[in-house]
Automatic annotation (TrEMBL):
Official protein name in the record: TRAP-type C4-dicarboxylate transport system, periplasmic component
One Pfam family it belongs to: DctP
Signal peptide: 1-27
Keywords on record: Signal
PANTHER family: BLL6794 PROTEIN, PTHR33376
Annotated source species: Desulfobacter postgatei 2ac9
Length: 339
């Protein structure tokens, strides 16, 4: 090597080490695609945007999250397998849409009186951590949360069990079992298909948490709410295992550190937003809220008693400790509701 070229080599090396090289020494930015099934204004997408903002901030911009609401990347029923297969790095699933697949975590949608979304979200997360159900073996869980308790939203008033008889109402999973026990004609479909079904009259109402009266404008069609406060719908945010394994350790730490916080945040957001939605529906769309007398509520609840017993039996047939899972949920409700 000539003296002159050696000189330039040394200069280049100094430039590289001192950071003036045109090639940045910093690791490449990680970019992740996050799929969600319902429209952007709904709570699963609101929590997704909150998580994106916090992750991008807490990783100092080393991670970029690209969000896909409204089923533009993956739809409700293809979400779990789509994430496992890597069609999206991250996805949000409603476990009620595949009840047989998520037996343990769907036990939170038995009629066990989870009082609100914040309590329920922390109960679900604890239950998941305790049992580590194999349904989630192929993914990394980033958080879990639940809706507020489900109530009836309908075109015609529902004040008696006889009003429900044969009525076409939409629900999924644990909530669907409850509608059946009350004698309604339960129609199963994801929330993302419900606006069209209501519009076309395929269903005459739905059974879910009440924030959708505002977020999906169901108050324009469903003029009646019947307060039953029975079961929640459980959700999980899951990540492709390969995408997770490739993340730098400090990014993994940030995501792990947000699992519980995101669960509580989403529960609190949901509880607040349900109150908002009821007030808005009454004021803007003259929606009537029907409450059941204690006597009637007892009559409605009595119909639900066999559901938990039957779930325990089915779980035990699958080799799961059904009895213990139900007891654990009851204990966890007391633990988290006390706070
Ligand atoms: C739900 C699902 C997507 C968007 C808003 C929502 N509010 C309550 C749910 C629960 C659910 O999955 C359902 O199907 O009722």
């Amino acid at each position: 090597m000539k003296k002159a070229s050696l000189f330039f080599c040394v200069l280049a090396a100094i430039a590289f080490v001192s950071g003036t090289s045109p090639v940045p020494a910093q690791a490449k930015k990680v970019s992740l695609n996050y799929a969600n099934f319902p429209p952007a204004p709904t709570f699963p997408c609101v929590q997704m945007e909150r998580w994106k903002t916090e992750i991008e901030k807490r990783t100092d911009g080393a991670v970029q999250i690209n969000t896909f609401p409204g089923g533009t990347l993956l739809g409700a029923k293809e979400m779990m397998d789509g994430v496992i297969n890597g069609q999206a790095d991250i996805g949000c699933i409603c476990m009620a849409y595949q009840p047989g697949r998520f037996t343990v975590t769907n036990a939170t949608s038995l009629p066990l009186n989870i009082p609100d979304a914040k309590t329920g979200s922390l109960v679900l997360l604890d239950l998941y951590n305790k049992y580590q159900p194999e349904a989630f073996d192929k993914v990394k869980v980033l958080t879990m949360f639940v809706t507020a308790p489900a109530n009836i939203m309908s075109k015609a008033p529902v004040a008696e069990l006889s009003d429900l008889k044969g009525l076409d109402l939409r629900a999924s999973g644990g909530a669907a079992q409850i509608l059946k026990a009350w004698g309604a004609n339960q129609v199963g479909m994801p929330m993302s298909d419900t606006p069209e079904a209501l519009q076309k009259g395929v269903v005459k109402g739905l059974f879910s948490s009440l924030e959708v009266m505002k977020d999906l404008k169901f108050a324009e069609i469903c003029k009646y709410i019947t307060i039953t406060d029975t079961v929640i719908y459980p959700f999980a945010v899951i990540m492709n295992k390969g995408s997770w394994d490739k993340l730098p350790d400090d990014v993994k730490q940030v995501m792990d550190g947000m699992i519980q916080e995101q669960s509580a945040w989403t529960g609190e957001y949901m509880d607040r937003h349900v109150s908002d939605s009821i007030a808005w529906s009454k004021k803007e769309h003259q929606v009537e809220v029907i409450t059941l007398s204690a006597e009637k509520k007892a009559e409605w609840n009595a119909r639900l008693a066999p559901i938990t017993e039957s779930w325990i039996k089915t779980a035990q047939e699958k080799g799961l400790p059904g009895d213990r899972i139900v007891k654990d949920i009851k204990t966890l409700i007391e633990k988290h509701a006390a706070k």
